[in-house]
Amino acid sequence: MIRVFPVLLMISILSFGCSEDRALVQVKFYKDTLLTRDMITITIDDGESRWRFGPSCLRSYLGAWSSPEIETRNEGTLLVKYQCKDPEGALVSGGQLKLGLREDWRWGIDIFHSEQNPYHTCFGCFGYKSFPILNPAYMSSDSDSVFVVWGGNSISNPVEY
Fold this sequence. Notes:
mainly beta
C-alpha cells in the first residue's frame, strides 16, 4: 500500500496539471416551438478539427438542445456556426461566431429565438450577435431574431455566478 501511494500521488498531480491546458466548448440551442430540433445543425471548428451536430446528435439538457462538451485546441480561433433549415432545406436562419481559444478555458454558447435580447439578463456573458429569421412563417412577431450569446470561465478556477 505504501508503494502505491507515491504512484497515485504522481498520477493525480499530472492529471491536475494537464487540466489547466485543456480548452472546452459547448453549444446549446434553447427549445422553441417555431425553430425545432429537426431544423438545427451546429458546427464547431477549432482550426484542426471540425465537429458537426445534426438534430439526432443534440441531446435535451435543461430546456435546450445541447452539443456534447468538446475538447478543443487551446490556442487559435474557434468558429461556431448554426443553421436552421425548413423541411424543404431552405435556410430559415444561420450565423457564425469567432472566439479566441485559450488554455484552461470553457466557452459556453447559447442560441435563442426571441423577440428580446437575452444578453441583457445574463450574468457572466461576454457578448452577443443577432441574426435574422429569413422566413416570416417562423416568426412570432416582427421583432424576432436568433440571438447567439457567449460566455466563458476558467476550468481549474471557475467564477461562481
